[in-house]
């Protein structure tokens, strides 16, 4: 089993197509097909079922896939450990909630970039569920997510607490007024967002019936829709403070048992912690502790 063949296998499995995998790997389709066939030959099993729309993994392929990420990461960790000299450098790929990126990360990223110019920092945004999957599947080395997180393979630490508030159009002066709105919509991030789940619980507890949610991928789009009276959402107070001051939205406090959420920084327990990762975590702790004073 060749490691390069495993990387090709992972790309085909992730993209569902030999052609798309070839594009992602900057090679030709015939090379991808040959690598997959070579891997199947060495293992003595069929890894993909070919069809007109692409490929589908066989049960054998599904059993192999989890090991590919582990092996690839183990080799990368070994390479990093060998060349480490205590000076942060190289690429550090992290994940973050969009709200955390907008509200908290800008000063952290700025300080880190100035202090450690040899590190190339890549930040991917997503929902808590997706970011947890990214950490577990080793697509990112660490991520900021909304707690709680309960997984035996994850190391976590609380980096700060956020107060969540219900956000509506300024025309809504009290939460009970939402009961009189027919077909009230929630305006939320895609499935897997913990704020979305809490919003549904808050409205249900208040006896407020909602229609099918409107899903968006950006914070700006959500705030624009709420400001226009299309629906309601749930976000950290700090994220919507400017929009409230400008009169674009109204915010409504929640009961204390619903209002507070911990933002966690998570990483795999078994992952190698590089100098770049240690330096980033120390920078984030220092910056966020100053912000919370």
UniProtKB/TrEMBL annotation:
<protein>
    <submittedName>
        <fullName>LysR family transcriptional regulator</fullName>
    </submittedName>
</protein>
<dbReference type="InterPro" id="IPR036388">
    <property type="entry name" value="WH-like_DNA-bd_sf"/>
</dbReference>
<dbReference type="Pfam" id="PF03466">
    <property type="entry name" value="LysR_substrate"/>
</dbReference>
<keyword id="KW-0238">DNA-binding</keyword>
<feature type="domain" description="HTH lysR-type">
    <location>
        <begin position="1"/>
        <end position="58"/>
    </location>
</feature>
<dbReference type="InterPro" id="IPR036390">
    <property type="entry name" value="WH_DNA-bd_sf"/>
</dbReference>
<dbReference type="GO" id="GO:0000976">
    <property type="term" value="F:transcription cis-regulatory region binding"/>
</dbReference>
<dbReference type="InterPro" id="IPR005119">
    <property type="entry name" value="LysR_subst-bd"/>
</dbReference>
<keyword id="KW-0804">Transcription</keyword>
<dbReference type="GO" id="GO:0003700">
    <property type="term" value="F:DNA-binding transcription factor activity"/>
</dbReference>
<keyword id="KW-0805">Transcription regulation</keyword>
<dbReference type="InterPro" id="IPR000847">
    <property type="entry name" value="LysR_HTH_N"/>
</dbReference>
<dbReference type="Pfam" id="PF00126">
    <property type="entry name" value="HTH_1"/>
</dbReference>
<comment type="similarity">
    <text>Belongs to the LysR transcriptional regulatory family.</text>
</comment>
